[in-house]
């Protein structure tokens, strides 16, 4: 299917196309194989991996996060996850390799402190309790109070005279990780020394975000 025909089938703009595919996938039962010619054509527009030969699609919960994601069954019957959002970026001319690299680097820095001593202590302290914002008692998410995560990371990178798009990422791991063990250790130490953590419910944590702070380019 040529790109113009695919864009016509999915939506005239990126927002409509995202909504179309999102609603389509929500209707698919978990772990049940299905076929879709538009999705199959969309995979050919992935920025890094173009999967041409596979048996079927299925929505599955895959490690490491075990959240619902789109997978394909390859000819050898192994499973591969695919990011249809990356495919959209290429199809609708929104792909920015430098931005994508920065996003992967941020993801790797987040993963590096996921099991840090301070984060582990916070999960133990705020596992289930009252949200520090609305007071609702529920399972809590760990939030960076006072100084948002993005600002902590920018301050750390500045102290190391590094830029996000120059950080080397290990793509062999899932999730992605930092290639340098020393940088990982230094980042964990910096984070745990400077971070102030609190427990927020899912809604309050999502609405707060980074408090308006945006990463430095």
Whole-number count of domains: 2
Please trace the helix and strand order, writing H or E for each element.
Answer: HHHEEEHHHEEEHEEHEH
Q: What's the total count of β strands?
A: 9
Give the count of helical stretches: 9
The value of Rg in angstroms is: 20 Å
Low-confidence stretches: none
Structural class: alpha+beta
Q: What helical percentage do the residues reach? A: 40-55%
Mean of pLDDT: 89
**Spatial ordering of strands, largest sheet:** 1-2-3
Main sheet specs: 3 strands, antiparallel
Query: Roughly how many Å apart are the termini?
Result: 37 Å
Beta-strand portion reads: 15-25%
What coarse outline follows from CA principal-axis ratios? globular
Note down, in words, how this protein is organized:
The chain folds into two domains: 89 residues, Roll (Nuclear Transport Factor 2, Chain: A), CATH 3.10.450.40; 107 residues, no CATH class. The chain is globular and about 55 Å long. The chain is α+β, with helices and mostly antiparallel strands. It is built from nine helices and nine strands.
What descriptive keywords fit this protein?
Nuclear Transport Factor 2, Chain: A; three-stranded antiparallel beta sheet; 43% helix; alpha+beta; single chain; globular
């Amino acid at each position: 299917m040529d790109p113009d025909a695919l864009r016509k089938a999915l939506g005239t703009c990126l927002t409509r196309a995202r909504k179309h595919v999102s609603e389509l996938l929500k209707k698919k039962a978990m772990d049940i194989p299905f076929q879709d010619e538009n999705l199959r054509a969309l995979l050919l527009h992935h920025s890094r991996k173009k999967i041409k030969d596979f048996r079927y699609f299925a929505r599955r919960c895959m490690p490491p996060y075990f959240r619902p994601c789109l997978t394909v069954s390859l000819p050898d019957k192994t499973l591969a996850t695919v990011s249809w959002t990356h495919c959209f970026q290429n199809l609708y001319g929104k792909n920015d390799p430098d931005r994508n690299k920065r996003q992967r680097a941020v993801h790797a820095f987040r993963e590096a402190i996921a099991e840090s001593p301070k984060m582990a202590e916070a999960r133990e302290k705020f596992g289930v309790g009252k949200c520090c914002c609305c007071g609702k008692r529920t399972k809590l998410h760990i939030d960076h109070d006072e100084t948002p995560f993005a600002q902590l990371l920018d301050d750390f990178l500045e102290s190391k005279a590094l830029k996000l798009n120059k950080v080397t990422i290990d793509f062999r791991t899932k999730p992605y990780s930092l290639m340098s063990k020393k940088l990982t250790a230094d980042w964990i130490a910096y984070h745990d020394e400077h971070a102030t953590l609190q427990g927020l419910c899912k809604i309050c944590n999502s609405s707060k975000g980074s408090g308006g702070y945006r990463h430095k380019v």
